[in-house]
Predict the structure.
Amino acid sequence: MEKRKWTIWLCAAAFALLAGSPVAACTGITLRAADNAVVLARTIEWGGSDLNSQYVIVPRGYRQQSLCPGGEGGMKFTARYGYVGLAVEQKEFVAEGLNEAGLSAGLFYFPGYGQYEAYDPALSATSIADLQLVSWLLGECATVDEVKAALGRVHVVAVDPRASTVHWRFADLSGRQVVLEIVGGELHFYDNPLGVLTNSPGFEWQLMNLNNYVNLFPGSAPARQLGGLRLSQFGAGSGFLGLPGDVTPPSRFVRAAFYQAATPLAADAAEAVLQGFQILNNFDIPVGIEFADGKVPASIPSATQWTSATDPANRRIYYRTMWNSAIRCIDLRQVDFARTAYQARPLDAEKRQPVVSVPVG
């Protein structure tokens, strides 16, 4: 057990140290359907290596222990609710998930702006690692209010003090969504009716920055006269001329907000899920653009390693990966969380994009 704990901690430290580099990014959106369904979709980017991502199925009563700096054991916790999560690097590090009560939770990188409280070994029994916070809260809570109350009882610490920080998105069946950022060791919750989240700077700054794009609108700009010259659009979509197209977090936040707002209202959750994947096609990051020429460190097809969509009302979580663009679904209502065993399996059985031949003749 002790050897296992140290192995996990070393992997966590290596992963967390890299998380502060430019290769880490995430983009989250929220879509609402005509039947009042709410779908949360997101990407996870990592251009430095293959994250070897897994899905985990966690039954009620499953016991875990948080890691703390130096490989020490932190808070012990037992799942009150079963959940399904998408984990990165280690099965303990759930980056996105949904529980049987309909609570959705996910972490997004937040380098350079967050500051957790310093780890105090005397408080290890109530200390939870940032990369395990999603796992704990999915097993513990059913609502956003319960999340806020639970976080008041614990100390969130970094797995490795040198690592990047993260911030989190939580949503429940009421449609309420909040962002959690920890700055100066203090918890800051922000209601997020827009439903968009990326990375740094902070969430409030990202919302304010949208005011720089008040001139944008869906559709096409009307023709106009400029002195004696008539100006007209080159093609459709000129109302969005000036929408930032780079992959920095502020630009992705703006682009996600406007794409999301311009999307036609879906009839139901199933249609909204597909809309989410279509919108997030625009946020796939080619692995080569994040590094100097010839300096790409990994042979992977994309920096966007997976994209997910969560349908809390119907208890379904969907995903596709850089290795296989087919959309796959895990239906929580097909899982007996009282009886199932803990499971951790790769997102991709084979790391190769299937190509289907079309019959002709």
User: Anything to note?
Assistant: Residues 30 and 194 are 8 Å apart (CA to CA). The two ends are 60 Å apart (CA to CA).
